[in-house]
Each structure stands twice: as C-alpha cells, then as structure tokens.
Request: fold
Amino acid sequence: MKDLKDKTCFLTGAASGIGRSFAFALAKQGMKLFITDIDTEGLEQVKTEIEQEYPEITVYSMKCDVSKLSDFEEAFKEFNSKLGDVDLLINNAGIGVADTLTNIDLEIWKNVLDINLMSIIYSLKVFLPHMLERKSGHIVNVSSGAGIFGSSEPLPYITSKFAVVGLSEGLFSHLKNYDINVSVIVPGYIKTNIFDSGIKNSNYDPKMLKDFGREKLEEVYNSWMENIINSAMSPDVAVRKYIRQIKKDQLYIFDSAFIKDILALKGKTKEYEAFLVNYQEMQAKDMREHFHEHGINIEDYM
Ligand SMILES: NC(=O)c1ccc[n+]([C@@H]2O[C@H](COP(=O)([O-])OP(=O)(O)OC[C@H]3O[C@@H](n4cnc5c(N)ncnc54)[C@H](O)[C@@H]3O)[C@@H](O)[C@H]2O)c1
Reply:
C-alpha cells in the first residue's frame, strides 16, 4: 500500500507507546483513523491531540479490550458504520511480563496469551471475512524480537510473540492470492510503557516477596529496566521505519539490524544454539549483578 492518504485504519493499543506513535504518524499521512485501547482516558487524549495537530483528519476512538471477541465485534460494527471498509488493520496492543522461570503462574500465561495472541485471532475473526470478500487490505501484526529468538525474555511473552510470527507467515502465504498483504513487526527495545506493564502483570517468587516486600522488588526491578529503557529507540523513530516498510508490503518489518542478523543466524545451527544460551546468560548475569548491588541474592530464589 504505497499511498495511505484517505485510506482507513483500525488500530489497537493506541493510547500509549508504539500505538500512539502510529496514530500520529498515520494521521500525518492523511489516513482516516479508528483508534482503540482499553485505557479510555489515554485514548481520548491521543484523539484530542491528533484533532488539534491535524484538524483535517477524521479520527474516531472506542474502547476495545483485545482479549474479548465481543469488544472486537462491537468495534467492528462501529468502524464499519463510520468508515466503511478497512484498508489497514494494525494489531498492536500487547503486554509484557516479568516472571522468572520457576514462578510461572498459569493465570499469567493465560493473560499474556489472551492479550498478545488471541487478540489477533479475534481481530481476524471479525475483519478477515470482509477483506476476503473485497480482496484487499493490509494486516499488520506487532510481534517482537522475542518472537524471533527465544532467549532471556519470560516464557509466556516469547511463546505469544513466536505464535504471532507464525500466524503472520501463515496468513501471508494464504492471503497473497486474495491481494491481501500481511506484515509482522519485530521491534527491538522501544522506549514505551510496556516495561511498567511487565511489572504489573507479574508475580514475584513468594519467598522473595516475603523476604523483601513488593515495593523493594519493584524498585530494584524498575531501576534495572531503566538501564534498558535508556538505550531504547523512541517509538516515533521506530514507527517511521515501520511505515516505510509497510508501504513496501514487506512481510518482516524491523527497526534494528540486530534482529535481522539473528534471523540469518538461525540457519547456522550450532552458532545459533550458542547465541541463545550466551544471550540468556549475559542478561541473567547483568540482572544478578544488579540485584546483588541492592542486597538481593536473586539466585537463592530460582
Ligand atoms: N516497547 C518495546 O520494547 C517492544 C518490543 C517488542 C514488541 N513490542 C510490542 O509492541 C506492542 C505495543 O507495545 P508498547 O511497547 O507500545 O507498550 P505500551 O504499554 O506503551 O502500549 C501498549 C498499549 O496496549 C494497551 N493494552 C494493553 N492491554 C490491552 C487490552 N487488553 N486491550 C486493549 N489494549 C490493551 C495499553 O493500554 C497500551 O496503551 C506490543 O504488542 C508489544 O508486545 C514492544
């Protein structure tokens, strides 16, 4: 889709981070927007700011909890009555998680899979039949570097994001004959609020919680995350890169060479295996050292 002007877009997770930057950047391109999020206050703020900056742009907003099919059904009806057919469907909403390997709560697995994966399946359930009928449209799913290589991130997050990559590849091959494009974005670290959501969605080891209290653990974890966030890319910069690649109808959309290189490394089995283990160990070592600096022997709780 080379020209986005006057085309329609349905976007999830638009109140913050990458979604928010997408909303502004697509308004700048002249798209008609339907932005959604579970955070209605943040969403309204984005809508108001876009209307101030781009008064000529049509922008509708609506609450849509992506973990609920019924919310997608309602949002689709509203979208359809306001804007008609969808040209660009961006499944962006997602959450992080910060659990350790040994403390994976089933509720957390379910929540992460519902929000990061089932959301896209629900979105397809309502939008895809209409795209197939029209034989047009572009679906963009936001995965992660954690959907390309399984190392260092918590297992539920890796699992959800690998599934998004697989789903996107499958859609890409199945939908080419219908003139429907599919892209999957695999971000590296982007400076957004996802790192806070990771902390909120996590349960610490019960013994560690008892010994140090949630406040202290969050403080230490937050300061560790801060180091990562400080070196992360701004979402505005990342989204400019994504839009350039969406316009080229690319399947994989990157913001950093690092993740591209890892994809290439996958063919070299032994090198790739060594990379996975070394990366995990390097991140775990950094985290251990950080917790030690704050008086916590994290390895006692693993
Ligand atoms: N920031 C990064 O470093 C990074 C890296 C890789 C992938 N990603 C992916 O990018 C996407 C956007 O994340 P972000 O970094 O902008 O984070 P963010 O937390 O800044 O924004 C996520 C948005 O999703 C919304 N959301 C959360 N749960 C929802 C639900 N149930 N229904 C509807 N909306 C919901 C939040 O309210 C928020 O506005 C996610 O899919 C994330 O996994 C981010």
